[in-house]
Amino acid sequence: MRAIVVERYGVLPTVQEVAEPEVAAGGVVLKVESTGLCRSDWHGWQGHDSDIVLPHVPGHEVAGTIAAVGDGVQGWAVGDRVTTPFICACGECEQCLEGNHQVCPNQLQPGFNYWGSFAEYVALPFAAVNLVRLPEGMSFDTAAGLGCRFATSFRAVHQVGKVQAGEDVVVFGCGGVGLSAVMIAAALGARVVAVDTNPGALELARKYGAAEIVQAGPDAVEEIRALTGGGPRVTMDALGSNEIVQQALRVLRPRGRHLQVGLLPDGVRLDVSRVIGQELQWLGSHGMAAHTYPEMLGMVASGVLRPADLVTRVIGLDDVPAALDELSAGTPAGVTVIRPSGVLG
């Protein structure tokens, strides 16, 4: 099969012919119809993830059709249209039995722990607890973005942050995660302020429900305070930046909630005295379990959420190296989806 192969960190990967994955007991092999290009893939390519062993095939946001079914898998058949969270939980540990698949200590992540979905086929483990059947009418391109960016934002905003109607929510970083968060928070009735350096991303944020947009920079904190009457109830770092974290915590009202979703590979320094004195909450959020997808899919089916609108570019495997490299200079507006088949029409 054709796949994107990273042989050295930070050096552009290439398209190569590699062996197709074998189906394992309890798992399936998926024919990849669509897979998202995410900033997490860029972090992996740069060597920020200790789980990756070179040579490596990235890719963790995936939708497709089942091509092979392993021993012991029930209820799934070749040809079924599915997606999966990027965190493939074991389904048997203490956290999984409590429903917290997104923090399973035995989790496997395609594109990180093993070869991922920037390929024509990908293996998925623990099918019984991780496969999600696609609703009729949902495209593979839309579904590919659910497993990481959209589902991650849905859990962060709705399930972890518990955003309520009427609250001011400031989203820092309007890439795929941030734009998803803007759409979800607005759909929940929050008043959203979107912050980014990219004017195109800010215009998309306004399109997806942001009431206000702010150009990122040293004056952003005072502008946000003015727009929110003294500060928001909720902030979210959707990019992963020490500078963003400082601004997000400084701008919060007392007893405000900060959602950290963006990765911080270089760590971060916190003003703990402020966190204590203002009774601020720092809330980490990591993916979303497959069994919690129905509420999100229901809101998509009703039209309240429109993840299809976030997809702004569709490319083939040959375009991936250049698209990864673009992320070194910043996050392009919208969501990029890869179709490994190369059929882009």
Structure characterization notes:
Its EC number is 1.1.1.1. It comes from Kribbella italica. It holds the Pfam family ADH_N. The chain has 345 residues and is of the alpha/beta class. The protein has two domains: 2-148 and 288-338, Medium-chain alcohol dehydrogenases, catalytic domain (Quinone Oxidoreductase, Chain A, domain 1); 162-284, Rossmann fold (3-Layer(aba) Sandwich). The chain has twelve helices and 15 strands. The chain has helices at 39-45, 94-97, 127-130, 140-144, 146-160, 176-187, 199-207, 220-227, 242-251, 272-277, 293-301, 320-326; strands at 2-5, 14-17, 28-37, 61-69, 81-83, 121-124, 132-133, 168-172, 191-196, 212-215, 234-237, 257-260, 281-284, 311-315, 335-338. Strands 3, 4, 5, 6, 7, 14 and 15 form a seven-stranded mixed sheet that branches. A six-stranded parallel sheet has the order 10-9-8-11-12-13, with helices on both faces. Strands 1-2 form a two-stranded antiparallel ribbon. α5 packs across α6 (176-187) and α8 runs parallel beside α9. The protein is globular.
Provide mean pLDDT, rounded.
95
The end-to-end span amounts to: 21 Å
CATH architecture of the largest domain: Alpha-Beta Complex
Please trace the helix and strand order, writing H or E for each element: EEEHEEHEHEHHEHEHEHEHEHEHEHE
How many DSSP E strands? 15
Shape type:
globular
Structural class label = alpha/beta
Biggest sheet, open or closed, and with what strands and sense?
7 strands, mixed
Helix content: 25-40%
* Portion in beta strands: 15-25%
CATH fold-level label of the largest domain = Quinone Oxidoreductase, Chain A, domain 1
